[in-house]
Amino acid sequence: MQTPILDLLWIIPALPLLGAAINGLFGKGLPNKIVNTVALGATGLSFLAALEAVREFIYIRNQEFFRKEFFDWIVAGSFRAGFDLQMDQLTVVMVLVVTGVGFLIHIYSTGYMAHEGGYYRFFSYLNLFMFFMLILVLGANYVVLFVGWEGVGLASYLLIGFYFLRKSASDAGKKAFIVNRIGDFGFMLGMFLLFRTFHTLDFHELFAKAEPWAREGWGVFGTLTVASLLLFMGACGKSAQLPLYVWLPDAMEGPTPVSALIHAATMVTAGVYVVARSSILFTHSETAMVVVAIVGCATAFFAATIGLVQTDIKRVLAYSTVSQLGYMFLGCGVGAFGAGIFHLMTHAFFKALLFLAAGSVIHAMGGEQDMRHMGGLSKKIKVTYWTMLTATLAIAGFPPLAGFFSKDQILGAAYQIPGGHPLYVVGLLTALLTSFYMFRLIFLTFHGKQRYDEHHVHVHESPGNMLGPLVVLAVLSVIGGWMAAPSFWSGPDHFANFLAPVFSSAHETEGALSEAAAHQLELILAGVAVAAALIGFFTAFWLYLRQSGKPEQIAKSLKGVYTTLYNKYYVDEVYGAVIVKPLLALSTNVLWKVVDVQMIDGTVNGIADGATATGDVTRRTQSGNTRSYAVWVVVGALTVLIIIFWPAIKALAGGAQ
Amino acid sequence: MVPLQYYLVLSAILFGLGAVAFVFKRNIITIFMSIELMLNAVNLAFVAFSQAFGKVHGQVFVLFVIVVAAAEAAVGLGIIILIQRNRQSLNVEKVNLLKL
């Protein structure tokens, strides 16, 4: 078995790292063309290497699990964390999505960022992100995964704050970083607990040891439940789930390609990846599964409702991303890990496309992001319009586009688990809302009257290097779900079958229905989902095209609801009042003014003042007056003499008496 | 023959006078002379010991001390002349640039 690239698996993440290093260190003096070549070359070659590695994995090794230790990183006692990489079916999906979509977004960025300052810096960060993301998905133990996990957080921070001169951007970067810290704290505790219990953090070994453990029922907080919940806490931070989702909408301060790559297609799905990767741990704990499902479902619905009324085109997409990530967790939580990962993949295609198309719109409008100042753009930027419409149809769940299949699988799985009907209903409602707000976005942006001043804004279609990736992603958004399509005419679900070896199934009851009945149910559920999407579409159509002016009326009559949604349920304000403000007060009044100023500075200054005071007294002896020194010498000499001759003096005194 | 103690007492008195003069006098030349006085008090003690013990070491040391004192007198007088030129005064209290 000759598997040259698999044996050199480290080359896939190393190439973007090399690109990041070259552009980061020397890019400032290089012309944009060379920066492009380095950045695109690094990611392009990485993509090709990934393709070759996947080919070797599937055709030469016949999908046999591959794992290789490259070097020891931390060895302490019985603990070993090596730089080990692995390749299995789940990695295949992730690595192809990351390098493929990443490469397309790199191409797009060469157009989008062409006139921006810090061009080399942008590509250096972007390549650095690719490196860490690939480490994250290729790592064969939790420690290597965590390196990637923190690294993508760093890259995300750097790129959100890319326009660091704008205060809102640097604030958003810090917010993302700090909110993620909370999740990472849980993630690390989870890792520690796993190591304490199983004495290894290697995926393969750990899952083999965890497999025979007893399942922990509802309400039982055993080791695996606690570990799973802690890992899920990390996932909540990284993947922007309730209650830690607040950083993602603000992350839209970064350049649009960054939003597409990091905050839609890849990094934010890392949490889903971790949950899916740890499926064995999660399926051993009913509590953890229920928590994942409920958090995912609640986030999906919650974010979708906020998305209904946002006016910034990127904010709508941001809340949509939060909502779709909720879907993925819902899928994982109901035991359909394959469906969750499937939605992760299709979502990567259509949401990256939506963001890139939105970037193209913003580019066309000369920086305008408010949809209220757009309208009627469909004639002027045709390619952008059609690709964005494709992505919208895909995310809304119209067959036969990608989103339809993945969303349908998740909803189907939610419907079929015992007690899953409420989850299904909320999920379906969310699908309706998704369809509504996405078409609202399309209608406000591309249809209706133009609401901008044509003398100021010269609408122009984007250059070819931006449109190319849009078209490729549009094609993927259409065909991305077809691997699962045969299941609709009783054929095999190729995607689920491919991933099956990686996941352990949570519920053995799935086979309870007869095949014919299950198939019938699936068709009915698909029909209902499409109906929901259609309702969303027609509502948006009616409100924003037929009855313009109606939305304002509704907003007025439901003022309370509207303002609550428009202000995102005041979550930021509540967090500000409940967490940030007390913390700030504590830091200012206690930690700063008491602990730091009085205790620490007081101690340090006190020691210095004490030394000065002592010196003030003792320096009187060092007057600089030579004759006083002479007096001291004499006094000293006399003292020495008296001490030496003390017995003689005493004897003399005694003799005198 | 004069006993050793007499020499030593004389030497101690001379040394004590030198030390007191060194500490209390203000004129640099007087201070300089008091140093010479202390050196010679020591010389007297050396010579007395040399004679009392019948050894030559003490006298050799005295010669060394006289040589060093001569060298010291040359350097010291040079310094005194410089001080006089710079400050038009021989008062040692006024040489106080290093004082607090």
How far do the termini of chain A sit from each other? 114 Å
What form of chain A results from the Cα inertia axes? globular
The biggest sheet of chain B amounts to:
none
The overall average pLDDT of chain B, rounded, is 90
Estimated helix fraction of chain A = over 70%
Cα radius of gyration of chain B in angstroms: 17 Å
Q: What topology, given as strand order, has the largest sheet of chain A?
A: 1-2
The biggest sheet of chain A amounts to: 2 strands, antiparallel
Shape of chain B: elongated
Number of DSSP strands of chain B?
0
The largest inter-chain interface, given as chain pair and residues per side, is: A-B, 9 and 9 residues
Query: What quaternary form is this?
Result: heterodimer
Poorly predicted runs of 5 or more residues of chain A: none
How many β-strand runs of chain A? 2
Secondary-structure map with pairings?
The complex is a heterodimer of chains A (657) and B (100).
Chain A: H1 4-7, H2 11-26, H3 32-60, E1 66-76, E2 79-87, H4 89-112, H5 119-138, H6 142-160, H7 167-198, H8 203-210, H9 223-238, H10 247-250, H11 256-265, H12 270-277, H13 279-283, H14 286-307, H15 313-333, H16 337-364, H17 382-396, H18 402-416, H19 421-446, H20 464-479, H21 494-499, H22 515-546, H23 550-557, H24 559-566, H25 571-618, H26 626-656
Antiparallel strand pairs in A: 1-2
Chain B: H1 4-24, H2 28-53, H3 57-87
